[in-house]
Amino acid sequence: QVQLVESGGGLVQAGGSLRLSCAASGSGFSIASMGWYRQAPGKQRELVAVEISDGTTNYINSVKGRFTISRDNALNTVYLQMNSLKPEDTAVYYCNAIVVVSGTSFRYWGQGTQVTVSS
Predict the structure, then answer these.
(1) Cα torsion at 107, 34, 65, 94 (round to 10°)?
(2) 1 has a pLDDT exceeding 90
């Protein structure tokens, strides 16, 4: 069993910054990818950023140039540095990890952390 624990959400004014963290704990697994999704009220959950095991990153267009995803492989932790935040970035942000255990892939989700950007 793998657990994802998130931290770092909060309330910030437009133009401000926040950094989200997500640590994966457990044993006997390797991480294929870690990323962040978000879900705003009344909207579908969307992928914000993802980093796969070879270091390749991908971002939704609306955050390119403002958000940066990074990983600390030794700590099994993924970060999302969010700069120049906009009110439309307001959402619950969910950490996501695809892990491999004995050759089988599993997807895990964090509990979600609220990010609110005021105008």
Answers:
(1) 50
(2) no
- Tell me the average pLDDT across 79-101: 97
End-to-end CA distance of the chain: 40
Q: What DSSP line would sit under the chain, residue for residue? A: --EEEEE--EEEETT--EEEEEEEE-SS-EEEEEEEEEE-TTS--EEEEEEETTS-EEE-GGGTTTEEEEEEGGGTEEEEEE-S--GGG-EEEEEEEEEEETTEEEEEE---EEEEEE-
pLDDT for residue 16: 98
CA 102 to chain centre: 25
